[in-house]
Backbone:
């Protein structure tokens, strides 16, 4: 409860800071006036320029909100994959979604076609499709052969991921001047954030995350392995398929708009678990909150130090924080 | 309580169980014994619905097992997991709490009744002193008792165990056995356990079911089931090598 409260306060704070800060200085009171005017139609008796309004309302607000949504998606998907695969090293990208999305994005960059529908370009579309196709391939391939489903999933994910990575490397090699564009997708960021893009991503992430949280019971059952889960009343193969689909959908929706942002999906669920224990009923919503705050905060830093890719910031904040937490964890932490 | 009729199980063309007829009444304490590969674990997996027999039928409490979904089975049969690996730091009471999953409201999670059942299971198994500790720091014996508590919290009329004493020292073996007897006598829980140690089985279980080559070759009190000739035939060892307290006493 206290944790959730603190998280919400942090959320509001990062929302405020994210909207107020930027490369163009706009007075905080002007910013507040623009937002309240746009949101509630209340006039605070201040005047501002049209460009200020565009910057605040059409650039900063959607950007902060997108970072919140993507952070939520990555953290919830990470917690789900970790629980599902019973692997603390799992993250949203573990089953090849990242490579699939990256290859999709790279192909989009190389194709000489350009269009934007509702804020979504070819890049976002192909990244989304690439992520889903790759995880579907992994899932189908993993069901062939005699290995246990989990081992098979992980190994197939690794194999397909490597294959896609080779394709990505090839695409980058061939890309010439477009290399920088592919590279910037790989590093992740919210440069292209817009209201229409947010409107496309938010429902997918929100519904996906809610449906995952409703299945917290299944994730809890899987803590002790699939056989024990079955004895505890979980229909394991069905729940595995459902959770895998939802987590992949959420991941794909996130990476399509943000590129590949590391660490959030790995670290946030662990940090939450170290504090509240393994109960998915707590881990999932608190991860959602933590992921949102961390990524929005990381994006504020990324913008304020000259618009560097946000993935660099998440790694720079995430890794040391994680190491400190492991050292003072309530108990030993083993893999 | 549990009725198996003409049950056969085959993996591809390898027959693991055949012609198994077994009836277990409510409140019984039954040990399944037999050499490695006799089909004991498979029999347990048939009873718990993890393996669907290729022939025959299984009923639990009068209902066909095949007609029950996993949650319904879990409310009737609790299984003590074999030694498990816990991927995340988990406290003893959190682990025991998983036993309440079949009873939990999918949306709201554990309710006061669930928490009470967990506290009761912890007290019943006598692991109150372990509360608050990480399961991964426990000794094997303590871990085993925690897993039994998980199954007790499940509050099912039938408790099933596969080799509950393997890896345990003598003291913990006896403690586990006494706990099972206790649950059986005081809670009326039906206990079905696969045991390797014929001595423990004979001492703590009034009924033994001996399997060999996928068939039941003996069923009854230990004196009947574990005759010297049977031990020689089934296990291929000199019966004097086997410590059988109930027989020798």
Residues:
């Amino acid at each position: 409860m206290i944790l959730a409260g603190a998280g919400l306060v942090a959320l509001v704070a990062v929302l405020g800071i994210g909207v107020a800060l930027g490369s163009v200085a706009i007075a905080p009171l002007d910013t507040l006036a623009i937002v309240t005017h746009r949101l509630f139609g209340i006039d605070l008796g201040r005047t501002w320029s049209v460009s200020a309004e565009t910057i605040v309302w059409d650039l900063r607000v959607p950007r902060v909100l997108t970072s919140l949504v993507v952070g939520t998606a990555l953290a919830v998907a990470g917690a789900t994959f970790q629980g599902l695969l019973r692997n603390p090293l799992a993250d949203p990208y573990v089953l090849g979604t990242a490579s699939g999305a990256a290859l999709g994005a790279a192909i989009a960059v190389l194709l000489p076609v350009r269009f934007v529908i509702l804020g979504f370009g070819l890049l976002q579309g192909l990244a989304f499709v690439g992520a889903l196709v790759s995880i579907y391939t992994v899932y189908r391939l993993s069901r062939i052969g005699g290995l246990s489903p989990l081992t098979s999933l992980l190994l197939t994910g690794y194999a397909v991921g490597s294959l896609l990575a080779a394709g990505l490397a090839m695409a980058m090699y061939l890309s010439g001047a477009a290399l920088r564009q592919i590279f910037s997708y790989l590093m992740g960021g919210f440069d292209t954030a817009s209201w229409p893009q947010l409107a496309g991503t938010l429902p997918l992430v929100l519904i996906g995350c809610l449906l995952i949280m409703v299945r917290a019971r299944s994730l809890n059952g899987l803590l002790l392995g699939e056989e024990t889960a079955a004895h505890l009343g979980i229909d394991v193969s069905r729940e595995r398929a459902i959770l895998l689909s939802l987590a992949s959908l959420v991941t794909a929706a996130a990476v399509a708009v943000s590129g590949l942002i590391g660490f959030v999906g790995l670290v946030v669920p662990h940090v939450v678990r170290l504090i509240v224990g393994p109960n998915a009923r707590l881990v999932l919503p608190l991860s959602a909150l933590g992921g949102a705050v961390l990524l929005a905060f990381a994006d504020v830093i990324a913008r304020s130090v000259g618009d560097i890719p946000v993935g660099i910031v998440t790694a720079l904040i995430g890794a040391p924080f994680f190491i400190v937490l492991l050292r003072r964890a309530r108990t030993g932490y083993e893999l | 309580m549990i009725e198996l009729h003409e049950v056969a199980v085959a993996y591809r063309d390898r027959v693991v169980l055949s012609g198994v007829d077994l009836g277990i009444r409510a409140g019984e304490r039954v040990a399944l014994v037999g050499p490695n590969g006799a089909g004991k674990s498979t029999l347990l997996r048939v009873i718990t619905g993890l393996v669907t027999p290729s022939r025959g039928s299984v009923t639990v409490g009068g209902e066909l097992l095949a007609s029950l979904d996993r949650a319904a089975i879990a409310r009737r049969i609790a299984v003590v997991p074999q030694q498990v690996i816990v991927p995340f730091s988990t406290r003893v009471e959190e682990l025991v709490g998983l036993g309440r999953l079949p009873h939990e409201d999918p949306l709201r999670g554990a309710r006061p009744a669930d928490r009470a059942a967990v506290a009761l299971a912890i007290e019943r198994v006598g692991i109150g002193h372990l509360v608050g500790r990480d399961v991964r720091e426990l000794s094997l014996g303590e871990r085993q008792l925690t897993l039994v508590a998980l199954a007790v919290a499940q509050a099912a009329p039938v408790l099933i165990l596969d080799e509950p004493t393997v890896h345990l020292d003598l003291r913990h073996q006896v403690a586990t056995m006494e706990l099972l007897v206790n649950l059986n006598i005081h809670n009326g829980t039906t206990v079905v356990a696969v045991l390797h140690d014929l001595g423990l089985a004979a001492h703590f279980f009034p009924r033994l079911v001996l399997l060999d080559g996928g068939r039941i070759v003996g069923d009854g009190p230990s004196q009947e089931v574990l005759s010297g000739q049977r031990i020689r035939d089934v296990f291929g060892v000199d019966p004097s090598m086997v410590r059988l307290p109930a027989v020798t006493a």
